[in-house]
Amino acid sequence: MNVIHVSAECYPVAKVGGLADVVGALPKYQKELGVDAKVVMPFYSNKFTSEHKFESVYKDVLSMGGQVYDYEIFKLKRNFLGFEVLFIDIPVLLYRDYVYSYDDTDRFLAFQIAFMDWMLTFSERPSVIHCHDHHTGLIPFMAQESYKYKKLNKIPIVLTIHNAQYQGWFSHDKVGHIPSFDFSKVGLLDWNGQINPLAAGIKCAWKVTTVSPSYMEELQRSANGLESLLSHEHQKCMGILNGIDTEVWNPETDEFIVKNYVSRIVQSGKKDNKRWLCREFGLNISKPLFAFIGRLVGEKGADLLPEVIDAVLPENNCNFLILGSGHQETEDRLNALKEKYDGSYNAFIGYDEKLSHIIYAGADFLLMPSRVEPCGLNQMYSLRYGTIPIVRSIGGLKDTVIDIDDGGFGFCHDRVSLPEITDVIARAVRFYNEQPMVYKKNRKQLMRIDHSWDMSARQYLDLYNSLNPE
Predict the structure, then answer these.
(1) Is there a shared CATH topology between the 2-243+454-467 domain and the 263-446 domain?
(2) Collapsing DSSP states into helix, strand and coil, what is residue 448?
(3) How much of the chain exceeds pLDDT 70, in percent?
(4) Which residues of 47-67 are buried (b: 16+ CB within 10 A; e: fewer)?
(5) What is the CATH topology of the domain spanning 2-243+454-467?
(6) Where are the domains of the chain?
(7) CA–CA dist 338, 31 (Å, integer)
(8) 3-state secondary structure of 69
(9) In what helix (H) or strand (E) does residue 55 lie, and over which residues does it extend?
(10) Which residues, in sequence order, are bridge partners of residue 184?
């Protein structure tokens, strides 16, 4: 079986969020099951592309909106990723030092057209095209409806929704940018008076998946305007829980962390990493360390973090450490708290891959008070490193974390509110201080929970096989 994943992100090439982690891991695990899995993504001007050598495998021109653009397909001269990645370079549009910005409509539409044009030259068609999020959502429509791609309309296409909040909307004024099709089918592109690539992908893909079963259920009630569409298309939809790359996220071999460890020596291993964090950020190692890693945006509940810290620290003997960036006001408020809670709180505004690994290894608790969390990977990383997750019960967090009072191993709350978040943190502090033996036993158990991609990769393979019954 030959599968092509089409995505805007892929770790370690270009990462903005969890999409990159998924696309950077799933193909690797699929190859272990005998699937010839590749990734096709844009060619960005970033650290990865500047540090590696590439060779050209194809070049041509594409037409879009009356403009003609040169494009070229590259691959790595030395492939070390565990699967093949092919890069579409459209110098005028894609070769930027950012993944997403103001001009994404033209950038990602051209990316999809270039991919489809290139596909026409293949002597052997893929068994499945697997599209990821709205940046590739027009591929199912073009394969089904655009005249020039009729030869491709028998290739099964799967669309995975990683986050339905972002749908790629643009005006019908640009409908002419899409390769010619029977205009009576324009309704397949439309949702609420705009061209909506994610909606078009849901309508035209053979199968639609989301990144956790609970998120698929939630989308029929809350999907940023697509609720009725997803309810209507529910028969071709399914939720498959993401996994994590246990080779990258492995405290026994992780080259980023201060000291490697396994579950047998989790206490000493985590203490060395915590000691480094406390020394680096001026915190007290004797206190429980609560960490937040992620985008500082409303979806993640990050706007409440300054209030949470202000409410918790005067009443509880603990530390807070924040790693992330996003909304400027939230960043400013978090920075302003450093002096007020010197010795108990600090923040690194930005993102640092190495630091994130050390925080997973050194923190005692990980906060995820998300308003929206389709799957969530951070809670799985924290479990892998023996760090207890504190989560809101939604989406993939609901599928992966069971509250300790219900016989589980984490702490859960139902609503994103200051009282509920502060209460659950206080409960975790009491657990840390009053039940040290249970706490230590719990950390060992966390590390034995299997959230690898093995099961998820098999579920995707079963899905692909159902679309290729021969």
Answers:
(1) yes
(2) coil
(3) 100
(4) eebeeeebeeeeeeebebeee
(5) Rossmann fold (3.40.50)
(6) 2-243+454-467, 263-446
(7) 47
(8) strand
(9) strand 54-64
(10) none
Return d(Cα 329, Cα 76) in angstroms, integer.
40
- In this structure, are residues 289 and 364 in contact, taking their beta carbons and an 8 Å threshold? yes
Partners of 170 in beta bridges: 195
pLDDT, position 469: 63
CB 3 within 8 A of CB 38: yes
Helix (H, G, I), strand (E, B) or coil at 88: strand
Distance between start and end Cα atoms, the chain: 11
Q: Mean pLDDT over all residues of the chain?
A: 96
Work out the burial of residue 28: count CB atoms within 10 Å of its CB; fewer than 13 is exposed, 13-18 middle, 19 or more buried.
middle
> Are 349 and 331 within 8 A, CB to CB?
yes
Contacts of 407 (CB under 8 A, 6+ apart): none
As a whole number of angstroms, the distance between CA 333 and CA 307 comes to 9
Q: How far apart are CA 59 and CA 72, in angstroms?
A: 4
Q: What is the distance between the alpha carbons of residues 209 and 202, in angstroms, rounded to a whole number?
A: 9
Q: Output the six-digit token pair for 82.
A: 């565990």
Amino acid symbol at 429: V
The Cα–Cα gap between 439 and 374 comes to: 28
Tens digit of each residue's pLDDT (9 = 90 or more) over 118-129: 999 999 999 999
Nearest alpha carbon to residue 374 among 130, 208, 210: 210
The sheet with strand 237-239 has its strands ordered as 54-64, 67-76, 84-89, 36-42, 2-6, 128-132, 157-161, 207-210, 237-239
CATH number at 263-446: 3.40.50.2000
Tokens 């994130």 -> residue: 356
DSSP at 13: T
Phi and psi torsions of 166, nearest 5°: -105, 120
Listed as ranges, residues in the chain with pLDDT below 50 are none
How far is residue 236 CA from its own chain's centroid?
22
In order of 97, 207, 270, 437, the CA distances from 274 in angstroms are 34, 44, 6, 19
Taking the C-alpha atoms of residue 74 and residue 87, their distance in angstroms, rounded to an integer, is 5
* Residue 222 burial class via C-beta count within 10 angstroms: exposed 0-12, middle 13-18, buried 19 and up: middle
Q: pLDDT digit string (tens) for 355-378?
A: 999 999 999 999 999 999 999 999
Q: What is each CA distance from 278 to 343, 387, 427, in whole angstroms?
A: 9, 16, 23
Residue 15, annotated as binding a ligand: yes
What 57-65 contacts at long range (C-beta under 8 Å, 24+ apart), as own/partner pairs, is 57/86, 58/118, 58/121, 60/117, 60/118, 62/90, 62/110, 62/113, 62/114, 62/117, 64/106, 64/109, 64/110, 64/113, 64/177, 65/106, 65/174, 65/176, 65/177
Structure token pair of residue 5: 């994943």
Q: What are phi and psi of 61, to 5 degrees?
A: -125, 155
Nearest-angstrom CA–CA distance, 71 and 100? 19
